Input
Amino acid sequence: MERIIESSVLKKVKPIRDIVYELLRKAILDGKIKPGERIVENDYAEMFHTSRTPIREALRKLEMEGFVEYLPRKGVIVKGFSLSDIIEIYEIRKSLECLAIRHVVAKISGQEIDKIRAIVQEMEKADQEDNIEQLVTICQQFHDTILHTSSMPRLTSMINTLQDYLERFKRVTLEKPERRGNAIKEHQEIFRAIDQRDINKAEELISQHIEASKRAFLEDYTAQVE
Output
């Protein structure tokens, strides 16, 4: 069982069940706990130096989010993502982000536009330096800033969960130079539509951007299984 925590993490002023949930979730998303792997409450209680109760509470929450499942005679198993799961997630995310950006363009301030402009410039710099890790982070920051500007916390929470599911797949697609260049261009065009307060154009572009991301993933997936 791979080590997924440092002892200092558990000293944070936060309920232990929340810390366990966050660390298990991140470990699953990062691939440290792999699909099909069992999560044994006793083992993780020992790792986290806690009782089984917060482990069980964290696992219930992860089950509700679709990260794990309870199987008879096997216990808690980490779920993988099927191709249909990924396509569904992309489609749901597209619909929700289209809704979010309409609210953003309708109410965004000049100061918020300047903030997004600066993010786009950082994105271009990361690309020039061929810094993939930084580019992935900045692309996420672009979307996070748009969501925050929407002032719709429930919608933001739903989209963030979907983006977490897709994190590993976004990283794979952005490693390809062609997709990377297109993604940056798409973000630039989305920003221009926001700057021009063009609601319909911004919605159209965000839809096209997510659709392009889905196609890039599907091309990579198809190449792997052929």
Notes: The mean pLDDT is 87.
